[in-house]
Amino acid sequence: MQLLWLVPAIPFAGALVLLVFGAALSRKAVAIVGVGTITASALISLLIAGIYLSAPPAGGAYQQYLWLWIDVGSFRPAFALYLDALSLVMMVVVTFVSALIHLYSAEFMAGDEGYSRFFGYMNLFVASMVTLLLANNLLLLYLGWEGVGLCSYLLIGFWYREPANGRAARKAFIVTRVGDTAFSVGLFLLFRDLGTLNIQDLMQRAQTNWAVGAAAAIAAAALLLGGAVGKSAQLPLQTWLPDAMAGPTPTSALIHAATMVTAGVYLIARTHVLFALAPPVQFAVAAIGAITLLMAGCSALTQNDIKRVLAYSTISQIGYMFLALGVGAWGAAIFHFMTHAFFKALLFLAAGIVIEALHEEHNIFRMGGLYRELPIAFWVFLAGGCALSGLPLISAGYFSKDQIIWSAGASAIGGMGFWAVALVGVLLTSLYTFRLIFVVFFGEPHTPVSRRPGLAMVVPAVVLAVLSVIGGYDRGPFMSFMSKALPGFVAVPGSGVAENVSSAIAAAAFLAGLLGAWFVYLRQPSVAELLVANRAGSALHKFWFADWGMDWLYDHVFVRPVVWITWANRNDILDSIYDGIAALAALSWRGLSLTETGKLRWYAMGIAAGTVIFVAMVMFL
Amino acid sequence: MVPARDALLLAAVLFALGLAGLLVRRNVIFILMSLEIMLNAAGLAFVVAGQRWGQPDGQVVFLFILTMAAAEVSVGLALVLQLYHQYKSVDVDAASRMKG
Fold this sequence. Notes:
heterodimer, A: 621 residues, two-stranded antiparallel sheet, B: mainly alpha
C-alpha cells in the first residue's frame, strides 16, 4: 500500500524524461520509457488492488499523506492520496487500459515525427489522470482535472501543421474551460461555506450543516455538475468531443473515450453526498444524461467519419452513466464506466488499425469488405461493437447497461419516461453500431489494404476484446465491492418493471436495431437512400449530421457576437483615453518647442518677463 | 548725503537701461556692455543698502560683484572671439542653429 504514490509518480517521471531529453533519445528508448513507465504503474496498481482485496484497510479507505501543499490560515490542502473502492477501480482500469494503449501507440505512431513528444504528453496525461482519481482534496483533484485538460489540448493538436487540428484543440480547450470555471466557482463556494476542501470532511460537514434541498447545497452541486458536464461532453457542452477526433487515434481511445471524459462521472460519484442533498440537481443529472444519450445516438446514425461515429457513441454512453448517477445507481454507473473503458478503447484501437490499413481513410463509405482483408480487426471490432450495443448474455456492455436501464425505471428519481428513453437509446446504439460494422467490414471493398497491423497493435486489441466479452460477468461481487464506497441502489417497490422483463425488452431492442441495420445497410441498401431522398428525411439527416445544430447555435449566440464586439472595438475604446493623454503631451511639446528659437535675446526676454511676473506676484498677491 | 530712495531709483534706472540694451542690441559686444551696466546697477543697490543701514557688508558684496564681473567678461570675450571665428560676425542672432 505504501507504493501508492508511485502510481502517479512513475508516469510523471517518464513524462519529464521524455519531454526534456526526448529529442536526444532513440525511438526505441522513447518507446521503452513511454510504454515501460505506464506498464510499471499498471502493475503496481494491480498489486495494490491485490493487497486491498486480501487485506482491506480499516474503514475501507487507505490514505497516504505526502506533503503539505499550501498553508494559508485554515486553508491547508495537501498532496495526499485517498484510496477506496471507487478510486481503486478507476485507478486499475485507467492504468491498465493506458498501458495497453501505450503499447499500441508504440507501433501506431512509429512513422510520425514527434514520437517522444507524443509519449511525453501521454505519460503526463496518465500521471494527471491518476492524480485526479487519487486526490483526497478537491484542489488536488482540480490540479489533475486541469492537467488532463491540458494534455487533451496538446494531443488533439498533436499534428499541429494542420490548422484544422489546432482549431479543434482550441475548441476543446475553450468549451471545457466553461465547465471548469463553474467547477472552480463551486470550489470557492464549498470552501467559504464549509471551510475545507478535503473530500471526506467536506461530505461530513455538508451532511451536518445542510438540510436536503438547501440553497447552498443546490448551488454547489449545480456548479460541480457544470464542471462534470464540460469534461464529460454532455449537453450542453458536448460539441467539443466530435472535433477532438482530430488527434491521433490512440489519443482518442485513451483520453476521449476510456478515461478523461469519464472524469465528470467520477467527480459526481465522489461527491455523491452533495448531490443527494440537492435533489433538483440530481434530477438534472439524470435528465441531462437521458437527453444526451438520445441526441448523440441520433447524431451517430448520420456520421460518415468512423471516428466521429465512435465519438458520438462515447457521448451517448456517458449519457447512460449520467443517467445512472442521476437515478442513484452509483455502482451501475461505475460498472458501466469500466466496461465502457474496455470496449470503447477497443473500438478506437480497431478503428485505428482500419484507418492505417487504408491510408488515413476515415470515410466509412469508402471502406467496405474488410472482413476478409483484416480478419483480426473485424473480430475485435465485432466484440467491441457487441459490447457497445449490448449483445444479450455474452457481452460486458449488456450487463452494465441493463442494470442502468432497469434502475432508471425503478428509482424514485427516475421513472418510466427515463426507462423508455434508455431503451430507445439501446435501439439507436445497436443501429449505429451495426451500421458501422456492416458498412466497414461487409459489402464491396472500395479501398485496397496497404498495411497490416503488427503484434504490438494486435495484442492490446485482443486483450481488450477478451475483457469486453468477459468483463461483465462479475456484476454481483463488483456491486457489493462498490457499496463500500458508494451508497447502494434503492429501488422503489412496485415501480418500474421487473428486472428480467426489462432485460428482455432491452434484448429485443438490441435485436431490432441489429435487424434494422442489417436490412438497411446489407439487404436493401436502396432503403437508406430512400430515407434521405425526400425533403423531410434529408433535412433531418442534415440536422442530425450537424449535431442538432448545436455548433451553429453556439456560433451565432456566442462566437459571432464576441467577434462582432471585438471588430466594433478594434480601436479599443479604453485605450483611447491613454492615446488622448499621449496626444496632449505631444501637442504641448510642439507648442513649447516653438519657444526654443535659438535666439539668445528671446531667452533673456523670457527670463526678464518671468522675473517681473514673479516679483509682481510677490508684491501684489 | 544722497537719500537712499534716490540712489535706489538711480540703480533701478541703470538696471532698466542695461536690460533694454541687452534686449535691443544685436551686437554681442554691446550686449556684454549692457550686462556690465546691469551688474553695476545691482552693485550700486548693495552699496546704497549698506550705507542706509551703516554696515560695511554692502561694499564687501560689491567687491565680490567686481571680481565676478571680471571673470564673466573674460569668459564672455573668449566666447565673442569664438563666435566671430565661426560666423565672421558679432551678431548674436547668427548663432541660432540650436532650436526646437
